[in-house]
Each structure stands twice: as structure tokens, then as C-alpha cells.
Design goal:
alpha+beta, Glutaredoxin, 4-stranded mixed β-sheet, 4 helices, globular
């Protein structure tokens, strides 16, 4: 496995960046999550936002419309919704595919990790979460796992 912190992706403005570039100099961990606005797990935005203000942690959301078409909005609609409803200030990236033929390389890498439920492979649903450490090691959490249980 390579270091997922250095895999490029696009932000909401179409600019290329990496997880490492989004982190602060004191970052120890990044929470990477595929998000959707119309999912039963959408309320996890609250705990993700709480985690995003902790020292040494950067939360990065990747909108994805692959599961039940639960993220159909434009980039602006997604940002407006998360800001108004959940006061989200952590970065939301460009909408991507997290599984299948057009899976983004970041999620190809992250999907190789094994979760606490012993699952390895494809992302199964919205709000699957990955805790990436500074050294590139990855811990995987299912949609049902709460962000507060990850730290």
C-alpha cells in the first residue's frame, strides 16, 4: 500500500490537492469519509464537525452519489446544505466515485484496509470512514460506526 496522504484529488473548486496538504502542520490523523446529504447516516455530520475542530485531526468529506442516489446535488447545493443544517466547516471535496470501474485512486487505496468488522474491499454505503495516521496507516470504520467512536 502507498501512503493515502499523498494521493491527489480535486477539491470543490477543481484544484488538485492531497490529504497531507489539507492538514495542519501538527496533524496526526485524517478522517476520510464518503458523504451524502439524503442518507440515514447524514446526521453523522454533527460528530464529524466536532472531530474536525480537535487538535491534530483533519476531517475531509467526499460527496458520492453511488449509493441510492442520495447525493444528487451540485457542489454548491452540498456545501449550502451541510453549512446550514450541520454548520460544517471541514473541507468537502469534488463529488467522486468510491467504488466500481471509475473508483478514485484514493478510495482504491483505502479500500484495501480491513475494518473492525473484518470487511476488506468495496465501500458498502455512505459514511464509511477511514482514519489515516501520519505514517499512512489506515483504520476502517463502517457507516454504522459513529465518528466519536473512532478517536
Amino acid at each position: 500500500m502507498g501512503n493515502p496522504l499523498d494521493i491527489e484529488f480535486e477539491d470543490m473548486n477543481g484544484e488538485h490537492t492531497t490529504l497531507r496538504a489539507l492538514g495542519e502542520s501538527n496533524n496526526e490523523q485524517w478522517i476520510v469519509v464518503n458523504v451524502a446529504s439524503a442518507c440515514g447516516f447524514t446526521k453523522q455530520y454533527t460528530q464529524l464537525q466536532e472531530a474536525s475542530v480537535l487538535d491534530g485531526i483533519t476531517v475531509v468529506g467526499f460527496p458520492c452519489n453511488q449509493f441510492g442516489a442520495q447525493e444528487p446535488g451540485t457542489h454548491q447545493e452540498i456545501c449550502d446544505f451541510t453549512s446550514a443544517k450541520y454548520e460544517v466547516t471541514f473541507p468537502l471535496m469534488s463529488k467522486i466515485e468510491v467504488k466500481g470501474e471509475n473508483q478514485h485512486p484514493l478510495f482504491t487505496e483505502l479500500s484495501q484496509s480491513t475494518g473492525s468488522d473484518e470487511h476488506t474491499g468495496d465501500i458498502r454505503w455512505n459514511f464509511e470512514k477511514f482514519l489515516v495516521s501520519k505514517d499512512g496507516s489506515v483504520s476502517r470504520f463502517s457507516s454504522k460506526d459513529l465518528p466519536s467512536d473512532m478517536l
